[in-house]
Write a structure and sequence with these properties.
Layout lengths: L27 H5 L3 H19 L17 H9 L7 E10 L7 H14 L11 E5 L5 E9 L4 H18 L4 E6 L1 H11 L3 H21 L6 H25 L5 H27 L5 H28 L7 H32 L21 H10 L2 H16 L20 H12 L8 E6 L3 H9 L4 E10 L2 E8 L6 H15 L7 E3 L1 H35 L3 H28 L9 H31 L1 H28 L7 H33 L14
Antiparallel strand pairs: 1-3, 1-4, 2-3, 5-7, 5-8, 6-7
Helix pairs in contact: 2-8, 2-11, 5-6, 7-9, 7-20, 8-9, 8-11, 9-10, 9-11, 9-20, 10-11, 10-17, 10-19, 12-20, 12-21, 13-18, 13-21, 16-17, 17-18, 17-19, 18-19, 18-21, 19-20, 19-21, 20-21
Amino acid sequence: MPLHEPHDLRGVPPRSATDTAGRDGGLMGPLTGRRSAWIVIALFVVIVGSLAGALRGGGPVGGMDTIPATSESAREAARSATFPGAGTGQAIVVVERRDAGRLTSSDLAALGRVAKDLGAGGSASGASAFGPQPSKDGRAAVIGVPVRTDVDKTSLRHEIDTLRSRAHAAVPPTTTAQVTGGPAFGVDVAKAFDGTDVTLLLVTIGVVAVLLLLTYRSPILWLLPLSVVALADQASNVVTGALGKAASLSFDAGVISVLVFGAGTNYALLLVSRYREELTRHDDHRAAIRAAWRTTVGAVVASNLTVVVSLATLVLAVMPAARGLGLAAAVGLLIALASVVLVLPAVLAVCGRRVFWPFVPRPGSRDEAGEGIFARVARWVTRRPAIVVGAGAVVMATMAAGLLGTRIGLTQMEQFSAPNESSAGYATLARHFDPGEAQPNVVVARADRQAAVIAAARGVDGVRSVRPTGTANGWARIQVVGDAEPESARSLATVRQLRDAVHAVAGADALVGGANARAVDVHDGSMRDLRIIAPLIAVVALVALVVLLRAVVAPVLLAVTNLVSAAASIGLGVLLGRHLFDFPGLDVAVPLLAVLFLVALGVDYTIFLVHRARDGVSRWGTQEAMVRAVGSTGVVITSAGVVLAAVFAALGVLPLVVLGQLGLIVGVGVLVDTLVVRTVLVPALFALVGDRLWWPTRIDPTN
């Protein structure tokens, strides 16, 4: 699709290079000078290269499910660390007959020898294995093998891989063996990400390259913004990685790259679009880029800072991953802004108008106002605004209805999109044993109150077995096995009831931890952050619009529209995920991140559109100014939206369901925002309310 704006809302006639004389000093002089532009480009490359060399080796700490140190499961883990063997976890070898029959006595005898071999002799922990423990149906058995978990990820992976090789080779040929359990799950998750950073980067670059090529219709031009944004992403990766290591931040680096590429490309599209328009007014391409920079930098900086401040609200989150993502993403977006605003103009100044070949814009070649399809659509909807707004409200409500009945939270089996041995082994375990055996709950209480705590735990609905596992330093450790799938709604309910029961034991100071308790704390922390942070993001967007538009009514109306669009987009994303990808529910981290990106990025496009309309209100009045603004920004906003949606969709290549869901919802939401909200609903609302939108500013059109 072509990337040029059909007309100038300010009604300024074409100008020659001399028209801007005396007004092109300041920052843009050095950025676009014949020699200084080359210096700017060289400095940018040197800075990125120096950062990559000086800060190499940094990286975020932890993952998306890191929990607050104050949570009960974290406090239980810290208390359990004082017990002997605290650095040891348990891998579970699940053995099943190949013919689906019952295990024979010779099978069990052979598995007894396997357990002995995999214990002290085959385990790095030096502890003995237990088992084989046959299932009630006699068709499977489990062997518990202690493994060291207080080691680095490489050592743990080697230990699990060695255990699997030994187990697969040692079991009788009539059976199959699968290694699962907590340590094995962790290793398989890490393996699933092997090479995905490179894959995500290549997919993102490929998507941006194709869309820029289609947008610019030039075999050359697309390389310029892509190269600048790619270098910005490299700088962002290095800086945020070092920041993550220094401050022990938890965040997903893939999300940061997607944001940098998406936002950076959006800023570049807006700048290049205006540059193309100015080339139809100027003989000198350097004067054109200066004029384009002056007329776009305000909107670009305003939109960037709005998103950055929205991200900064995440410092109030209790979830470490949310705080880390907020800080890292804010830094990445500031780097993207600086690169596009300061470096891309220098690159364009060096290359000149010939980079638009074969459709090179010339002075006097610009289109007349109102000829584009977006202007025609806007003019149509502004003639019947009440009908359009009513129909839009129905459509948005229908989309948002997809949220009704949506489950928030996924089980351990549902969190990964890539198959692995741990998941397969757990499925086998669940067929023959109590599902809770794979991830038992852990209670740590004072040793002198152990009997009372055990009695209280046994009285909890959903608890299958309770057994003490040792004492140390006056504390007792108790294992509580439930009857539900780990991290399912039922198992989380059991954890809550178990906590209520053991907390009620006077003098026990009991804490409940383990994988299920951790999931409860992640869920509660994420929901708390959603309740606190989401309203703050909406307030930030509202304040940004009030400052930019110097009005009250229009910002409130636009902010409400933005929130409605976000809710509708999440609902539509949930429906599509449920029917196209079999997503059973939303990961607990998705609602907050989706609201953050949809509201903040939606304000981006609102600023691009309304900033342009505001310039023309005094000349044409509110309705006509909005029609012309939609006509002149429709192509660039749509292009930017398609690029951003496609870039977020690239998150689907990663093996975590949370990232796939986030990519789907934000991608769908950006398209809804650019194609429906900005093109149809906003013009209809502006036509319906009229000049009252700008209160307390008084509008007096000149014609």
